[in-house]
Specification:
Helix content is 35%, strand content 16%. The protein contains 15 helices and 13 strands. With 475 residues, it is an alpha/beta fold. The strands form three sheets. It has a nine-stranded mixed beta sheet with strand order 1-2-3-5-4-8-9-12-13, sandwiched between helices. The protein has a two-stranded antiparallel ribbon with strand order 6-7. The protein is globular, with a radius of gyration of 24 Å. The structure holds 3,4-dihydroxybenzoic acid.
């Protein structure tokens, strides 16, 4: 009998412990503090802070799977219809901590404008926990960071009756790898392909689509970024890029894949003709000219060294001519180019790993190749291919695969900026993203931002005017 009881206990007890969630996913409005944010001009905003809220039931990495919610004083008495500005701090595909609003990025301004601000943390390439034997376990290999951000959004919806703000008006904002995350959140809403990952961490059973995505210099379409980069810049491999013969060989290997890839996207320009490698330089030229035109209108000077000529015809709008070779040289004179392969580089020519090699890596922390081309070059074996498991993870980290797929609930509104001087990824990457979204009926506000390099959360007057317009919300 005693034996039977022990057997019963030993089978029932683990079930009981497993049945008790680590975290019940319920928002506790009692745990609040009040603070003040001071701006450069001396003005202040008082706000309530709800912090360190775990947004998954099965917490894997307690350092990152939390979110913070901030409510400006203007919303203390009524916050039901206020849009939620959700900022991700992800950079370099690394882990990001939940943080508090600052005047150094758009979060301070969002509070000042009266929005509810949410800042979630998320796992990334460098998030590590200690295993039972003291070994290091990397918790954030892709798609973990994206899955965490989706879980954070689900948490907000799951608690929408008690959480401040309007979950039908969630606007995400991120820069670089964070811009890619914002684009992924916007493109992949509610797509069941992420469900197994979300279920594993005990994400709330709710929807994760968003209303609008703000993407500054998104480093995305990672599996095609190398070919796009070499296609745009390969002609300057010797001068001014200064590549060695091995690097030139790799560049020459990558560059020809861009034209067929571009063709396969089947993207249409506004004039109804297809955007191809043959007309792409002219398309970039159009965006560069528009960028210069806007800068001129704001009183900025366009340097002669940019290869841009401004021709005044009396009182008419000035004509702007762009010499694209000169313009690209101007970009590169600002910051030297990445060496090939720009993204999937580990072990191809050197052991140096990119942020992307790391984020697709193994749970033991090693970096991996994530494209067939680099895998083959790295191993000098052209029979190799990326494993189906990794192919899948690369696929679900690319927003281009989800726009117009008929399954995802893609955000209706997009604000995409890429610095006109940004060489971290080729111009075709953000342009293809914007074009695919436009082709699929999204409202897209896309520009190359004059004089900007690889950065984000600039021109906040313009950004918040856009947010006012798309949300229709007024304080
Ligand atoms: C970032 C920049 C890169 O050039 C890159 O390849 C990945 C990420 C970043 O700033 O987040």
């Amino acid at each position: 009998m005693r034996k039977i009881i022990i057997i019963m206990l030993s089978t029932v007890l683990p079930m009981l412990t497993r049945a008790v969630p680590v975290n019940d996913l319920r928002f506790n409005p009692e745990k609040v503090t009040e603070r003040t944010l001071e701006f450069q001009d001396g003005s202040t905003v008082r706000y309530r802070a709800y912090e360190n809220i775990f947004y998954v039931a099965n917490i894997v990495d307690s350092a990152y799977q939390t979110l913070n919610i901030y409510v400006p004083e203007s919303a203390y008495n009524n916050n039901r219809n206020i849009p939620i500005f959700l900022k991700t701090n992800v950079g370099g595909y690394m882990a990001a901590k939940a943080s508090s609003p600052t005047t150094r990025d758009a979060t301070g301004r969002a509070l000042q404008e009266g929005y509810i601000v949410v800042i979630p943390g998320s796992r990334g390439s460098n998030s590590v926990i200690k295993g039972e034997g003291g070994e290091e376990i990397y918790t954030g290999r892709a798609p973990a960071g994206l899955v965490d951000l989706k879980a954070a959004i689900r948490y907000l919806r799951y608690n929408k009756e008690v959480i401040p703000g309007d979950t039908d008006k969630i606007i995400t904002d991120g820069t670089s790898a964070g811009g890619a995350m914002s684009a992924l959140l916007g493109a992949t809403g509610n797509n069941p392909v992420y469900d197994s990952y979300l279920n594993e961490i005990g994400a709330a059973d709710d929807q994760d689509h968003i209303f609008a995505a703000v993407c500054f210099c998104p480093i995305t379409d990672l599996d095609h970024a190398d070919m796009a980069y070499e296609w745009l810049y390969g002609w300057m491999n010797i001068q001014p890029r200064g590549l060695n013969p091995y690097q030139v060989e790799v560049s020459d290997e990558l560059q020809p894949s861009f034209a067929p890839y571009q063709k396969s996207l089947n993207l249409m320009k506004p004039d109804g003709t297809q955007l191809t490698a043959d007309n792409y330089i002219d398309y970039i030229k159009y965006y560069v000219a528009e960028s210069a035109r806007k800068a001129l209108g704001q009183g900025e000077e366009i340097p002669v060294s940019s290869g841009i000529t401004v021709i005044y015809n009396g009182s008419q709008e000035p004509a702007i001519e762009v010499d694209m070779d000169k313009y690209l040289e101007y970009v590169v004179s600002n910051k030297s180019l990445k060496t090939p392969p720009a993204f999937d580089k580990v072990n191809v020519l050197t052991p140096e790993a990119s942020p992307e090699n790391r984020v697709f890596g193994d749970s033991n922390g090693s970096a991996v190749n994530f494209t067939d081309t680099s895998l083959r070059l790295a191993n000098d074996d052209f029979s190799l291919s990326i494993s189906p498991e990794l192919v899948h993870r690369v696929h679900i980290m690319n927003p281009m695969n989800f726009i117009g797929d008929g399954v995802s609930k893609t955000a209706s509104h997009w604000y995409i900026r890429h610095g006109a001087l940004d060489r971290d990824t080729a111009f075709q990457i953000p342009i293809n993203l914007a074009t695919k979204l436009e082709n699929n009926g999204c409202d897209v506000n896309f520009e190359l931002a004059w004089g900007r390099g690889h950065s984000g959360d600039y021109d906040l007057d313009e950004l918040f005017a856009w947010i006012r317009e798309i949300t229709g919300w007024r304080r």
